[in-house]
C-alpha cells in the first residue's frame, strides 16, 4: 500500500505525547519543510515499526533529550532514520538487541517496562519488506536506527489487500 510515512510519524508522535512529556523529550521530523513522504509499505506493520523505534528512543534516550525522525529521498527509495541523543548502546550488545527478549541493562530496562520483543518484531517486519535495518550507536552521543523503503509514485493507486490463497488453503 502507498503510505505517507511522514504523516504516520506525526500521528505516532501524538500517540506518544504523554510518554515523551513525562521525560521532557521533544519529538521532531526532519527536514521540517517536507510535505508528504510516500512509500510502499504495509500500513499496520509499518506503524508497529515506527511506534517501537520511537518509543525506544524516548524510553532509553536522555531525559530532556530529543528524538528526530529523518527522511532522506533518493530517486527510488526513502531512507528513514530514528535518532536519539541518549547514552547509546554498548558495542558488545549491538548485534544482540534484535534477539527476542534481549535487553541491555536488565535492571534499568525493567523499571521502564517492556518485554524485549520490540526490536525482534521490528526486524522481522523490515525484512518482510525486503529491506534491512541498521543501527549505529555512539556512547553518550546517541543511537540511530535506519532502513530504506521503496518510494511510491504520487499517482500510484493505493493497492487493495489481496487475500493470500496459500494461507486460506492452510486454514480450510
Ligand atoms: P518492548 O519493546 O517489548 O516493550 P524493550 O523496549 O526492552 O521491550 P526492544 O525494543 O527489543 O525491547 O529493545 C531491546 C533493548 O535494546 C532495550 O531493552 C534497551 O536495553 C535497548 N535499546 C533499544 N533501543 C534503544 C535506544 N534507542 N537507546 C538505548 N538502548 C536501546
Ligand atoms: Mg521496545
TrEMBL record:
<feature type="domain" description="Histidine kinase">
    <location>
        <begin position="1"/>
        <end position="153"/>
    </location>
</feature>
<protein>
    <recommendedName>
        <fullName>histidine kinase</fullName>
    </recommendedName>
</protein>
